[in-house]
Amino acid sequence: MTIHPSAHDPRDIYKLLIGSVVPRPIALVSSLSPEGIRNLAPFSFFNAICSNPPCLCFSTGFRPGSGQAKDTYENVRATGEFVVNTVSESMAEAMNLTSGDYPAEVDEFVVSGLTPVASVFVRPPRVAESLIQMECRLQQIVVVSNRPSGGALVIGEVVCFHVDDRIIEQFRIDPDQLLAIGRMGGNSYTRTRDRFELARPNVSPTPSPK
Ligand SMILES: Cc1cc2nc3c(=O)[nH]c(=O)nc-3n(C[C@H](O)[C@H](O)[C@H](O)COP(=O)(O)O)c2cc1C
User: Fold this and answer.
1) Which of 11, 17, 133, 147 holds its CA 20 to 30 A away from the CA of 63?
2) Which atom of ligand 1 is nearest to the CA of 61?
3) Phi-psi category of 91—alpha, beta or left, where left has phi over 0 and alpha has psi -120 to 50?
4) What local confidence, expressed as pLDDT, does residue 9 receive?
5) CA 185 to ligand 1 centroid distance, Å
6) CA-based nearest residue to 29, from 40, 38, 21, 19
7) DSSP β-bridge partners for residue 155
8) 25 lines ligand 1 (CB under 6 A)
9) What is the pLDDT of residue 147?
10) Neighbour-count burial for 90-99, b at 16+ CB within 10 Å, e otherwise
11) How far does residue 45's CA lie from ligand 1's centre (Å)?
12) Is the CB of 75 within 6 Å of ligand 1?
């Protein structure tokens, strides 16, 4: 089947995209409004993009009907700060509770029962239950499309990593302790327990011509 996106409803193309780009890691993003209201929401259009300096990005959509921006986007744009918290299996239901379309005045820490803990370098709190919490300063926002179902890419520099001592050794994270979950299409998720190893090809340098 050949599908031309411009000939279809963006909602169908969304389904196609989230079923095709799998599995996706999940950022549980905490932010603060300029008035100091806490916000927490998951984003699976998320990845690491640079390690020097360490940078992450996630994309917040503009709501399909109204084109309205999400609270996370407004908060990060206004304050320049956020925290990316990892999501382990044990946190799946609480993470999902934070994803409801609550009004901006609602504090999703309260809704989900997740525990806020003060950050060191930024104002938004971290999520105590997350085994890795990354304090971020906004580097740039790229508005990819401001149509309904469009989105904006938020790029942040990690200014501090907080890692649970039980899951790290010499900077290596133990995936069997982290037990991260990923997002698939629809309402599906995946665990990260079934893995395999592949060494990269060892390519010797081509001898230079004499
Ligand atoms: C696992 C998961 C991943 C999600 N990923 C995204 C995403 O990448 N981009 C997005 O705009 N919304 C995503 N959502 C929906 C938002 O979390 C939801 O719209 C939320 O209400 C936004 O909250 P806010 O308005 O407080 O920022 C996701 C929801 C779930 C459950």
Assistant:
1) 133
2) 11
3) alpha
4) 93
5) 14
6) 40
7) 57, 140
8) no
9) 87
10) ebeebbebbe
11) 9
12) no
Tell me the per-residue pLDDT of 127-163, one tens digit each, with 9 for 90 and over. Answer: 999 999 999 999 999 999 998 889 999 999 999 999 9
The answer to whether the CB of 189 is under 6 A from ligand 1 is: no
Report which ligand 1 atom has the smallest distance to the Cα of 73: 27
Q: From ligand 1's centre to the CA of 203, what distance in Å?
A: 42
Class of domain 5-190: mainly beta
Confirm or reject: Cβ of 124 under 6 Å from ligand 1.
no
Question: What's the gap in Å between 140 CA and the centre of ligand 1?
Answer: 20
Q: Spell out the domain ranges in the chain.
A: 5-190
* 118-122, 144-148, 176-180, 204-208: segment of lowest average pLDDT: 204-208
CA pseudo-torsion sign 52, 137, 163, 192: negative
